[in-house]
């Protein structure tokens, strides 16, 4: 199996970074392949702008997008790692999705039809949150509600299924021992 890790966190000392390293270790232990897109390290441009649209209308793809699209195409399983900020992904990841999952690559749409092109792929989304699980639940903000735009509205729409979400709650508040236990729970 070939995995593609899409990593979106700016701090190399973050728990998200530790998750990424643990996942890579697990993939290597299993003897499987992986590729990595580290959006902040690559200084990925998240802005969907005129050159993107002009290239698409000419049937072309910009070089930075072509690289990501090739990596997605060659993978069996996508692994997203990011913090939840304002109940969504960091802007750099949203911009990556906007630019990479384009019409003609991730799906086909015209006035009569919509066809997902990324069928046969699966995904796991590892997210970190600053809030405790029980606080979210008490306020009617269960994980499935605010992750639906990613699991169903983005990945599911283009044919990626199943999509598993692995949340890690209250990361700034838990002890190092609890974080270590969380990391040990990660299985690929």
As residue ranges, the low-confidence spans are none
Number of domains: 1
What CATH architecture do you see?
3-Layer(aba) Sandwich
Q: Give the biggest sheet.
A: 5 strands, parallel
Helix fraction by DSSP (H/I, runs of at least 4) = 25-40%
Number of strands: 7
Oligomer: single chain
Spell out the key features of this protein.
188 residues; oxidoreductase; alpha/beta; 20% strand; NAD(P)H_dehydrogenase_qn; Rossmann fold; 5-stranded parallel β-sheet
Question: Overview of this structure, please?
Answer:
By secondary structure, the protein is of the alpha/beta class. It has a single domain (2-185), classed as Flavodoxin domain (Rossmann fold), CATH 3.40.50. It has helices at 15-29, 50-57, 63-74, 91-100, 133-138, 143-156, 176-184; strands at 2-7, 33-38, 77-83, 107-109, 114-116, 122-128, 163-168. Strands 2-1-3-6-7 form a 5-stranded parallel sheet, sandwiched between helices. It has a two-stranded antiparallel sheet with strand order 4-5. The longest helix is centred in the first third of the chain and has 15 residues, at 15-29. The protein starts with a strand and ends with a helix.
What are the SSEs and their pairings?
Elements: E1 2-7, H1 15-29, E2 33-38, H2 50-57, H3 63-74, E3 77-83, H4 91-100, E4 107-109, E5 114-116, E6 122-128, H5 133-138, H6 143-156, E7 163-168, H7 176-184
Parallel strand pairs: 1-2, 1-3, 3-6, 6-7
Antiparallel strand pairs: 4-5
